[in-house]
Specification:
The complex is a heterodimer of chains A (173) and B (284). With 173 residues, chain A is an all-alpha fold. Chain A has 9 helices and no strands. Chain A has one domain: Arp2/3 complex 21 kDa subunit ARPC3 (Orthogonal Bundle). The mean pLDDT of chain A is 84. Chain B folds into 2 domains: 41-170, Thrombin, subunit H (Beta Barrel), CATH 2.40.10; 176-252, Beta Barrel (Thrombin, subunit H), CATH 2.40.10. Chain B has helices at residues 2-10, 12-34, 41-60, 63-80, 93-99, 103-107, 270-278; strands spanning 110-120, 126-131, 144-146, 152-159, 164-171, 176-180, 186-190, 198-205, 215-218, 230-239, 245-252, 261-267. The N and C termini of chain B lie far apart (57 Å). Classes of the chains: A mainly alpha (173), B alpha+beta (284).
Chain lengths: 173, 284
């Protein structure tokens, strides 16, 4: 129950930060859009089932879509990312995952290397699919490539900053 | 049959995932075609409510700036009043005076409505502005939106009961007819999606001789926008050797970052104008 409340608050908080702050920031460059909202899906505990993950990802993306007038765009990308998450986690931690059902992916529970790989891959998948959908409607190949790379780098920097600020390792103890 | 059900049950998660993807892709494609929200009015209403609350807060801190803008605008309006009217047909003066008492009502072409902005994006490729004024307060589809300093903002694409949505000039599909102030040559203003301050004016004939810094304003050909509203100034002239047309880059005179109030303009004769333009001769 505690976990449920914590994650609900996190869900709302990430959505609000994305809508109220990050979507309002004047663009630095055409290729750079700061995205952080999907971190909320990445922080869900290990034990959560794939089905509920996919649904949650879809709901989070759709909620953001309602605010940014792009129904389906973020919902599709976030849904895909949430669906792939368990596969990546299984790849990184073999057996321990089943034992620590309530723990969350973090530097403390996974270690630096695997956690960084986990964040890098899923961020990249999310942005790749998101910008691909955008690209299908307009834009050139350089737009697609540049935006995927630069937006991913921006997001990873933001996630890194959040990790530094929140310091979830200490909270865990 | 049993096998199929068993197969679906086994891969239930995967099928849920597939269905959700299809749902989102359908929403995405149908939305970009018709600009109609997939779920209809209630989401629009709900998001509008949330945006109002947030906006009330940020609005308070900018009261001073807004006030200064209003004063400037009042002066501007007094100087421009004549442009809201079409000249009276003097040859029929006698008949009209006998038939109608209110001569002013007959010649008014553009009608202005104020509206408060409650939602605004400028970082995306398709930007929309939400305003707190809907069909109950007289908003109709295809009305033009202009900012307090008299530059153009966009066109109303969706109307709810109390909220409406405006397709910003910063939108891939927005097209506004505009002309050079210097030689009155008309073209189309579009946005290429890169920089919110730079617009593109296309299809300007090469016979025109635009210079850097020239003023671009709306043309009288547009059905939604009143003529002679500021669009921007020329910053770059690109001549395409393969065609007879120039492409001009403009510095937009609208500041999309801090829109608080906008004015909606209704062209009372738009339906008639569009009807006439749409009519094709039966022989064709």
């Amino acid at each position: 129950m505690n976990n449920f409340i914590k994650n609900s608050i996190r869900f709302a908080l990430f959505l609000i930060i994305q809508v109220v702050i990050l979507n309002e920031v004047p663009p630095i460059h055409q290729f750079i859009t700061p995205y952080l909202y999907f971190l909320c899906i990445l922080w869900l505990p290990f034990g959560i089932s794939r089905l509920s993950l996919t649904l949650l990802g879809f709901i989070l993306g759709f909620a953001l879509d309602l605010f940014s007038n792009t129904p389906g765009l973020h919902a599709a990308a976030c849904g895909l990312m949430a669906y792939i998450r368990p596969s990546i986690l299984n790849l990184l931690l073999a057996q321990e995952a089943s034992e620590e059902v309530n723990k969350e992916p973090s530097i403390g529970t996974m270690g630096w290397g695997p956690y960084a790989f986990y964040i890098f891959t899923l961020t990249f998948i999310h942005h790749f699919y998101l910008v691909l959908l955008e690209w299908l409607q307009f834009g050139s190949f350089t737009y697609f490539l540049g935006k995927v790379l630069l937006t991913s780098i921006m997001s990873i920097l933001l996630i890194f900053l959040v990790e530094l600020i929140m310091n979830r390792r200490k909270l865990k103890r | 049959m049993k096998n199929i059900i068993g197969f679906i049950r086994q891969n239930f998660t995967f099928f849920t995932f597939l269905i959700l993807q299809i749902v989102s892709l359908v929403m995405l494609s149908s939305f970009s075609k018709s600009h109609q929200t997939f779920l209809g009015g209630w989401t629009n209403q709900m998001i509008g409510e949330i945006n109002t609350r947030y906006n009330n807060w940020s609005y308070f801190f900018r009261l001073k700036e807004t006030n200064a803008k209003l004063v400037l605008e009042n002066i501007e309006l007094r100087n421009q009043l004549k442009q809201n009217f079409v000249p009276y047909d003097t040859s029929k003066k006698l008949a009209t005076i006998i038939l109608r008492k209110d001569s002013l009502e007959k010649v008014r072409k553009f009608f202005y409505l104020p509206a408060k902005v409650v939602g605004n994006t400028f970082t995306l490729q398709k930007n929309y502005i939400t305003i707190e004024r809907g069909s109950l307060q007289g908003v109709k589809k295809d009305m033009a939106a202009i900012s307090p300093d008299g530059s153009i903002v966009g066109i109303v694409v969706e109307v709810g009961e109390n909220y409406s949505k405006i397709m910003s000039l910063l939108h891939r599909n927005s097209k506004v007819s505009a002309m050079l102030k210097r030689d009155k040559v008309a073209g189309t203003v579009e946005w290429d999606g890169s920089d919110p301050e730079i617009l593109t004016l296309k299809n300007i004939s090469k016979s025109a001789a635009p210079k850097l810094g020239d003023t671009i304003y709306t043309s009288p050909y547009s059905a939604s926008f009143p003529p002679q509203l500021m669009v921007g100034r020329v910053t770059q002239i690109i001549a395409d050797p393969a065609s007879n047309f120039l492409t001009l880059n403009l510095k937009s005179s609208t500041n999309f970052y801090n829109l608080e109030y906008i004015y909606l303009v209704e062209n009372k004769r738009m339906a008639e104008q569009l009807g006439i333009e749409k009519n094709k001769e039966p022989n064709e």
